[in-house]
Amino acid sequence: MSQKLYNQLIASHQGLGVGTMRDVILPAILGKETDEMLYWIGKDLARVYPVATTEDLIHLTNQLDFGRLALRKKSNTSQVWRLSGVIVKERIQRNEEETSFGLECGFLAQEIEFQLGTVAEAKIFDRHRDYVEILIQNDPQNSADNERSEMVTFINIDRPDSEEEKPKKEGRHSLLKLKRKEKK
C-alpha cells in the first residue's frame, strides 16, 4: 500500500505534503473520530476566514483547495452544495468510502451560519465517483446567538480581475505555464 499511496499522492493535484497530512496523518491521529473532529476543525477554520456572500464562499473554498463549490438547491431551511473538481475526484478514487469530507462540511456549516444568522449543520448528502453533495440544514427559528457569531468580521476575498491572471486549478503546473507565457 505504501508505494501505491506514494505514487497516487505524488501525482495528485493535492500534492504529497497536503495529501499525506489530510488523508494519512490526521486519520491516524484522530482514528474513529476523524469525521467528527474534522467537522469541528472546519467550523474553526470558517471562524478564521468568515465570508459574507455565496460568491465569496465559492471563491474561498477554491482558494483553500477544497474543490469547486456550487450551490445546487436552496430553500428557507436547507441548501445542497456540490463539491467537485480534480482534487475531490482524486481523493474519492484513492480512499473511496473512507474519504472524509468532515472538514468541508464543518467549514460550510459555519460559513452558512454566519451568513444566515441561524444555527446550521452539514452532512454528506450524496457521494459519487467525482463529487460529493453536502446538505446544510438550518432552523430559521433558532438564531446563532453565540459570542463568536456576534463578533464576526467578514474578510475580503482576493479575486484576480482578468482571466489571464487566474491560475487554472485543473492543471497542477498551471503557475509554471503562466510564468513561461510571461517570459515569451
UniProtKB/TrEMBL annotation:
It holds the Pfam family DUF2507. Residues 156-184 are annotated as: Disordered. Residues 169-184 have a biased composition (Basic residues). Coiled coil: none annotated. InterPro entries: DUF2507, NO_sig/Golgi_transp_ligand-bd. This is DUF2507 domain-containing protein. It comes from Limosilactobacillus caviae.
